[in-house]
Design a protein that fits this description.
- α2 (34-43) packs parallel to α3.
- With 124 residues, this protein is α/β, with parallel strands linked by helices.
- It has a 5-stranded parallel beta sheet, with helices on both faces.
- It has helices at residues 10-22, 34-43, 60-69, 87-96, 108-123, and strands spanning 3-6, 28-31, 48-52, 78-82, 100-103.
- α4 links the parallel β4 (78-82) and β5.
Length: 124
């Protein structure tokens, strides 16, 4: 499965890529912000998007809204990653159609359980 990791910090993209490799995901591509990710998603099919919330010029939340509004992309599983665990953010993301939510810092086991939960829901 091809995974798209979206984060404006190269270090965080590398960490998530390494965690994904640990749990068996080797086909990983990266984007530095929402606009970059959206452009990639319009050209390729991804089985999962893992996106940071806080980015410029397009945030992960705005990316999620764009993906869910696009007829071809709206079914793509989407996990939001953030350092903030504000309840209103979680609610906003859920309303926008996020599949799961991870608060930094996290480890491979957390990432794996979130991905498994998303994929199990999508298959059901």
């Amino acid at each position: 499965m091809k995974v798209l990791v979206v984060d404006d910090y190269a270090t965080m993209r590398r960490i998530i890529r390494n965690l994904l490799a640990q749990i068996g995901f080797g086909d990983v591509e990266e984007a530095v912000h929402g606009q970059d990710a959206l452009a990639s998603m319009k050209q390729k099919d991804y089985g999962l998007v893992i996106s940071d919330w806080n980015m410029e010029p397009m945030s992960g939340y705005e990316l999620l809204q764009q993906v869910r509004a696009d007829e071809r992309l709206k079914g793509t599983p989407f996990i939001m990653v953030t350092a903030e665990s504000k309840t209103e953010n979680v609610i906003a993301a859920k309303k926008a159609g996020v599949d799961n939510y991870i608060v930094k810092p996290f480890n491979a086991a957390t990432l794996q359980s979130k991905i498994e939960a998303v994929l199990a829901t999508r298959k059901a």
